[in-house]
Amino acid sequence: MTAPAMAGAATLRTVAPGQRVTVRVPATSANLGPGYDSLGLALSLYDTVDVATADDGELAFALSGEGADTLPRDGSHLVVRTIDLALERLGYRRSGLRLSAENVSPHGRGLGSSASATVAAVLVAAELVDPADRPDRAWVLQLCSEIEGHPDNVAPAIFGSLALSWQDGETFRTAVARVHPDVVPIVAIPDYELSTELARSLLPSSVPHHAAAANSGRAALLVHALTNDPSLLVPGTEDYLHQSYRESAMRPSADLIRRLRAEGHAAVVSGAGPTVLALAAGAEEADEVQAAVERFALGGDVHAVDTELDRVERTTWRVMRLDVDSEGAKVEVHSR
Ligand SMILES: Nc1ncnc2c1ncn2[C@@H]1O[C@H](COP(=O)(O)OP(=O)(O)OP(=O)(O)O)[C@@H](O)[C@H]1O
Ligand SMILES: N[C@@H](CCO)C(=O)O
């Protein structure tokens, strides 16, 4: 992991004006059932961040897509805040920034939007410093994992494919595995949000030993199923550590997962939810999954009943058949 030692605030250098960097980062699905805080898959759904430096100290934003009307347009914007942090770690600070972002990944739905934004920001910062101070991708993984608190979304966002991540003391590491070409990810994104922070607060501080033992068997099986034998995806995606504890915060998603699994499909909560991820073993099964989700949606599962208003709210779902992204984040540095 190479990067310069952190400089004191007084010695921070200002990044050169007139630079422009564009980064495209895939969405990611973490956990995949039993791989809690460890496994993550990169998906063919991309956010793009474009940053230009200026010497006027001003921040300017051009945001489109998800969050365009709600995200802050000041130094508290996740991308700006993370660029500032990464630059500081590298011994730099910024003056003015022009940030354009096209956000495609939905926020707060379990598709790693905050991880994608964090990865984009750290990769931008890495390009804005002098070449001699440029960090490698292990440093990028470390900082992004520290910011997110866990590596399972940021690793596939950086490297693509299936990332198997772990922690050695304070150091985050990852190994990237190639996914079997028959595996087809399908996401069913409900119309309600769930913050990762809330979903994490629902987990117990310890689990019974038999649950941990069962989970480790399934996590091992899942890696084999995803890379070598997709016919084992249903048993490989059984989880014992998190999904059941979070059900109360995402009933419609839990109901859809039960329905899909009962019909023989490998369905799990994507990340901290509430999106449902199904991993089909081939195009034919992917068609069946899409049809099953549509039947479930038409059945009109009840999301909330407001008895005072005598009104029933029903969940609506956006279903997308995606590919596994095998490239990870792509950085383009525009010549001056
Ligand atoms: N592209 C972005 N630009 C700025 N802020 C973002 C961006 N994407 C996400 N965020 C911030 O992160 C929040 C969502 O983070 P959260 O961790 O709750 O969900 P997620 O990352 O979408 O899902 P998960 O971590 O379960 O996969 C948003 O509400 C927003 O504040
Ligand atoms: N492993 C994380 C993924 C969401 O960021 C969780 O389930 O809380």
TrEMBL record:
InterPro entries of this UniProt entry? GHMP_kinase_C_dom, GHMP_kinase_C_sf, GHMP_kinase_N_dom, Homoserine_kinase, Ribosomal_Su5_D2-typ_SF, Ribsml_uS5_D2-typ_fold_subgr
- Recall the GO molecular function terms of this protein's record: homoserine kinase activity
Where is this protein chiefly located? Answer: cytoplasm
Source domain of life = Bacteria
Q: Which residues of the sequence carry a binding annotation for ATP?
A: P106, H107, G108, R109, G110, L111, G112, S113, S114, A115, S116
Per UniProt, the keywords (alphabetical) are: Amino-acid biosynthesis, ATP-binding, Cytoplasm, Kinase, Nucleotide-binding, Threonine biosynthesis, Transferase
Pathway connected to this protein: Amino-acid biosynthesis; L-threonine biosynthesis; L-threonine from L-aspartate: step 4/5
Occurrences of domain GHMP kinase N-terminal (ranges)? 78-160
Q: What is its EC number?
A: 2.7.1.39
- Which subcellular locations apply to this protein? Cytoplasm
Provide the GHMP kinase C-terminal domain boundaries: 239-295
Reactions mediated catalytically: L-homoserine + ATP = O-phospho-L-homoserine + ADP + H(+)
Role of this protein: Catalyzes the ATP-dependent phosphorylation of L-homoserine to L-homoserine phosphate.
- What family does the database annotate? Belongs to the GHMP kinase family. Homoserine kinase subfamily.
Write the protein's name.
Answer: Homoserine kinase
